[in-house]
Structures are given as structure tokens and as C-alpha cells.
Write a structure and sequence with these properties.
This protein is α/β, with parallel strands linked by helices and 227 residues long. It is 31% helix and 15% strand. The protein has one domain: Phosphoglycerate mutase-like (Rossmann fold, 3-Layer(aba) Sandwich). Helix 2 links the parallel strand 2 and strand 3 (98-100). GO terms for molecular function: phosphatase activity.
Length: 227
Amino acid sequence: MSATTIHFVRHGEVHNPDHLLYERLPGFHLSDRGRRMAEATGRYLAENPQTNTAVAVFSSPLERTRETAGIILDHLNEARAELVVADPNGRRLPPLKLATDDRLIEAGNEFRGRRIGHGSGALWRPENLKLIRNLYKPTWGESYRQIAARMSAFAHEKIDAYAGRQIIVVSHESPIWSFRHLLETGHPEHNMLLRHAALASVTSVTFDCDTHQVMSITYVDPAANVA
């Protein structure tokens, strides 16, 4: 039985001193801690024989995911060069390159640019809270069903394209969790406050190549202790 594993990585912490809901806004980069988080996850992926033979790395087009993916790439390519990581046939693996895919982007959100907290325009002001009527089915932007559909289309395309191999995908909390929730429960709707996809964490999904059925889902948080 041939299987394809997709390792979904959430980006590291973002530099956001004004506490804005940045969503898809440009100009939001990893913080210093976020880079350290990406380094920790990059080391984990490069040292783990279950992940260091990945044959492709994809990311959302946003800065924070591309920066996280770039750090991961550096670690994986260093492992390929120094440890001579080989494929199952013993052949040396070539350096990886980053590819972006719009289907991996953060969820659309009508509150983009608003502050999270107190002050003028803050998300939690009463006039805004009126719009947040249902945490399971958000009415303020892209639906969980839409998010999961584009993530699912990406995943099923790559299951066939990389049959029997592993790839690494750097995305965002909402897309990763919405897709996982769909796979585990049959529906993507969920309470956004109960997600389990920490910054720089890795959610690995293994699919049967013939049926595209899920064989296993695992989760690790390599950056949990990064200060």
C-alpha cells in the first residue's frame, strides 16, 4: 500500500506591536521569537527521518509563511548536504526549492486591520461583537467550508502528484485546523477558540494513494518551549 504524507506547518509568531488583526494584509513578518520558532521546527523536520526525505515544500504567499518555509528549507537542505540524506533507493536527494500556492492562504476576514483588544476600532467593541454571532459558522469573512474546500483540493492534487512520498506545507491556523476538522469529523465548522494548531506546529496527515482516505493524523509542537 502506497501512502503520501503532507506535513502542515503553521507559521511562527508575527511581529505585531499594534495588535492588529492582520489576516491577509501585507507587511507582517516573523518576529524575532517567530524566527526562533521556525528554526526549532526546521531542526525538528531536518533531524527526523520521517520528514527529512520530503521532496517538496509549499507555502502560502504571505510573508510570514514564506519566511517560515525559507528557514525550514535551509535546515532541510543543510541536512541533505551534510548528512547525505537519501531516498529509499539510496540516491542523494537534491536541494529543495520553495513553491507558493494561493489555496494555502489565510482565511478572508472583514475585520482585517482592526485592533484586537481595546481602543478605537477594536475588534471587541460592542458594535463589532454584534457581527460575531456564531463561532462555529463565521459571518465576518470566508466560511470554514470554503477554507476546507480549497485546502482539500490542494491536498488531493498533491497526493497524486507526490504518490508514496512526503511534502511540507506552511500555512495558517484556520486553514490547517479547518481541513483537519473536516477529515476527522466530516465537517469543517468548529469553535475557533478550541483549535489545536500552535505556532510553528506540525500536523501530519497520511493518505492512502489509491483511495485518498486518511490513514493517520499526528501532531507535534517543536517550538513549544521557544522563548
